[in-house]
Design brief:
heterodimer; A: about 130 residues; mainly beta; 6-stranded antiparallel sheet; 4-stranded mixed sheet; about 45% strand; globular; B: about 55 residues; alpha+beta; 3-stranded antiparallel sheet; 1 helix; about 15% helix
Chain lengths: ~130, ~55
């Protein structure tokens, strides 16, 4: 953990547990036509917020962003997303490979290995994603 | 000369890399395309990051 001179607290790895409730967040860079297989401390479900390029001048919220409750445990499932960008999709048909979802889309997969969440980037270029699981 | 980044493959993943900036110690997590999945490919993704042509 690092606290810089501006008072910004940076936790490079790990999570935050508040009164027993673990909150996870991670920033990853995903190449085009690639998939990130992510695991989270103490969690295989929760409210997921996927943000694309959120720390740039042009966050890609309305096209590649999504907010959806997810269960990526042993019986993976998800309801209709609370918000899905125009090029954001969900998948529950097995592990994503990097080219499973529609070209031009960000696809989040809940099936595959229990406890693993898949985020696939097919936007056409490498992108940074800020992924938060509450 | 010390390399700008050190790269370590993330255990349990096929294409995940943990990059550490030598100067600052800052860490970056990168997932590569299966067809370009070497340490130098992961470093290139960070160094050449443009996030496409965003608007």
């Amino acid at each position: 953990m690092r606290i810089d001179s501006a008072g910004i607290v940076e936790i490079a790895e790990g999570s935050v547990t508040l009164n027993g409730n673990t909150i996870n967040a991670i920033q990853v860079t995903i190449a085009d036509d690639a998939v990130a297989a992510l695991t989270f401390n103490n969690r295989s479900g929760g409210l997921l917020w996927v943000l694309c390029s959120g720390q740039t001048t042009y966050p890609q919220v309305t096209n590649f962003g999504g907010c959806v409750p997810v269960d990526f445990g042993a019986s993976p499932t998800y309801p209709t997303p609370i918000f899905a960008g125009t090029s954001f999709a969900m998948n529950n048909n097995g592990a994503l490979t990097g080219t499973t979802g529609t070209n031009g889309f960000v696809t989040v997969g809940t099936a595959g290995t229990a406890g693993t969440l898949y985020v696939e980037n097919r936007t056409g270029s490498s992108k940074q994603f800020q992924i938060t699981l509450l | 000369m010390e390399p700008e980044y050190t790269a370590q493959q993330i255990e349990g993943t096929d294409n995940g890399w943990m990059l550490t900036e030598s100067e600052t110690g800052k860490k970056h997590i990168v997932f590569c395309n299966a067809n370009a999945n070497a340490a130098e490919d992961a470093v290139a993704l960070i160094k050449n990051q443009t996030d496409g042509d965003l608007e």
